[in-house]
Amino acid sequence: MMGLSHDTVVGFAKSFGLFYLIALSIGICVYVFWPRNRDRFRRAKHSIMDDEDGPLTGEDRQ
Amino acid sequence: MITRFTIAERQASLVLLLLMTLAGLAMAAAGAGDAMGVHGFIVLFASLGLIFVVGGALYDPAPTEDRSRAYYDDPIKVGIVLAMIWAVIAMGVGDWVAWMLAFPDLRFDGAWSGFGRMRPVHTTGIIFGFGGNALIATSFHVMQRTCRARLAGQIAPWFVILGYNLFVVMAVTGYMMGVTQSKEYAEAEWYADIWLVIVWVVYFVLYLRTLARRNEPHIYVANWYYMAFILVVAVLHIVNNLAVPASFTAAKSYSLFSGVQDAMTQWWYGHNAVAFFLTSGFLGMLYYYLPKRANRPIYSYRLSILSFWGITFFYIWVGSHHLHYTALPHWVQTLGMTFSVMLLVPSWASAGNALMTLNGAWHKVRDDATLRFMFVAAVFYGLSTFEGSFLAIRPVNSLSHYTDWTVAHVHAGAMGWVALITFGAIYAAVPMIWRRETMYSWKMVEWHFWLALAGTLIYVFAMWNSGIVQGLMWRTYTEGGTLRYSFLDTMIAMHPYYIARGIGGLLFLAGAVIGFINIWMTIRAVGSDSKVLDVPTESEAGEPAVPVAE
Amino acid sequence: MIGWLKKLYYPIQAGHYRLEKHSIGLTIGIICAAMIGGFVEIAPLFTIDETVEDAPDMRLYTPLEQAGRDIYVREGCYACHSQMIRTLADEVDRYGPYSLAVESKYDHPMLWGSKRTGPDLARLGGKYSDDWHVAHLIDPRAVVPESVMPHYAFLADAPLDTASLPARLTALRRVGVPYSDAMIANADRDAAGQAQPDSDGADGVFDRYGDATQVRRFDGKAGRVTEMDALVAYLQILGKLTDAAHQMETAGMTPETEAAQ
To answer: Model ipTM?
Structure first.
């Protein structure tokens, strides 16, 4: 930790979190609301409702 | 179950078990005279027992069917039964120590039965024994079904389930012998901690390998929550348990951190154990079993992703709210408080998502106690996350901290949310996994539900009262400016609430015992020949989840 | 407008696609979201000397007190007793000056606690006599009828394990407690000496830990050193390793003025 004063580390900790939070929120919101993802999500949401007797294997997939 | 192993796999497990036997022998020899030696014998006998199980079936016919065509449910079955056994043991211990606080002589004479040693037996038994086994078992179930792929590996799932339970056994037997690091929810000593790291790495790799086999393009969100649980718990566990043993032949070790750093590390761990063990993993459960049981897809998939990242990001900052008004720097306390309040948003998004999924299917909630377990769990999740954000506010915390209000909050979460969602998930999973039409008795599920709900409410209201009363008494001044009540006065005021708490706990325990019997009878019932889907059938098909004909 | 957004989004989307396809990506995402925040929050506590105040008079736990502390941990006393007086008026009035970070500087692990089923013990040292502690530990309800504390009568008959003390002090030195070679080499003798004031070992305790060290028969009995000796010695030193908290109170310091300095 040479050269890093306590104040610098505290200052970084205090400000970095805010920017990190904003960046992360924007990225996630964009991903979630991106129109092209709508179908993926819809498919995923309904996929667990279907059942089968066992794992899918090569010939089931097609 | 051994017959599902190929001969080579049986031999490999024997080699592994022999290694463990040797490790146990080494521990028993090196740690002779210390608790570590006792743990060595536990490892030794557990491994020897399994050697007999595997060795006895070594030359049984090898499996002929194509294993890749079937899900691997044997380890899940064992995990669910173990979870229920731990539930009964740890809730029993919990209720016993609760009565001990009302009637302190209600114990054995030995040092092992003192409150200080038994309390971690209760907390570890519930969190790791009951909760952990339920999480591992349901994660294996959810992962295989949502990926439409078989578990990657034949021995690894067994290693995870059995190895994990060996850790829990070492932990709780250790506390009774006075082996503890004193770090709450991380009391187990260094060798047990190292063992858990090994088990956990195998678990993580198993999860990744199964996900990589998936036959679905998208990883269903329940798996995200399970992943966060596995991953973050690993990091938390390793960092918080960093310690230097006084000797490699004895259990005692000293934490790498001291004082304020240790406090921050401990509560960074402590609150994230709540976040990633008791919330993330169980939300994974919720996102699979609730839609499945209600036969309705989750209300908003997008919201589930948003709240996933919100919970994962916000939770990690909030630990310092356990240290308000202490010697921890003021700004760290403020940071913890701020994030705790923000955390309410993703938490309520999750609870709301669950409740909105049920919107329009309230008749199912009314008729099906299994679904009702999950519904009430979601309600308690919403309530206790609100309470958590509220208690993290500094002035509120000045009243609540160190009192039973904290205990009330923890149990609203642990009984109302964690245990109820687990029971709901287990009641949904047991018929699927054992290929039964239904549970043995729907009436017993009803009994369990009402006992659990009544027990939770009595417990939580008793502790709310005692906590707030005690907090207020501690800070009451006379007109002369002196403290009005001695500490002893406040303790005497607690007595009736402690009795009420014992009663609440007893009801909850009774429910769990009924649940265990019901599950056991379901397992023993003859499997039906009719085609059994992996889903509970609709009510008109004779599903007794509907208690009265309409 | 949308086109611009699209360009911005493209790498995010491509990134997130991989993030899901290969669950390793999801792993990294979880680590980024969960871990960075936690480390950023904790990191400053480790660069500091400012978080922990200066207390030149701070002394180390003697081997006997450390052994008592280990018993306190072993019995789970921390489950019901805190050792952290908060900066609240009623706590200061009830228990004494609020706790400073420096006071638990040598506490591996800290025992701040989270629940007060019994009272706070941060400043217990010197509040009661040794006899009171021994009687209370042997039968709490004989001394305080309403108490719900478990009894610890067995401590009075249990000989203290002093043989492992050098190893324990060595481990503590590895994690940062400045025990000297002489302290470690004499740990078992010092532990015995501190509980046997008329023995030769007592002098060594004063030499190594200062003249103010409490040397007496904590369990009230001559002869062998018991776990009761160790636990009472520890309870009697709680809050007395340094005088810094009292000095700060006398100077009229509050947490706010302290932080401003």
So the answer is: 0.93
